[in-house]
Amino acid sequence: MTLNIFFISITFKKHKESLQQAARNEMVEKLYEQNKERQLTMHHLL
Asked: pTM of the prediction?
């Protein structure tokens, strides 16, 4: 009888954003929210 046991270790490292990347992500989030609001107003008008 053979017993095979596998041990797997997964490590997640938190990636630090650069200042430029953080600013870009913030801008993308704002644009996403603006588009979402625009879609809702257009939907209500129909």
From this structure: 0.54
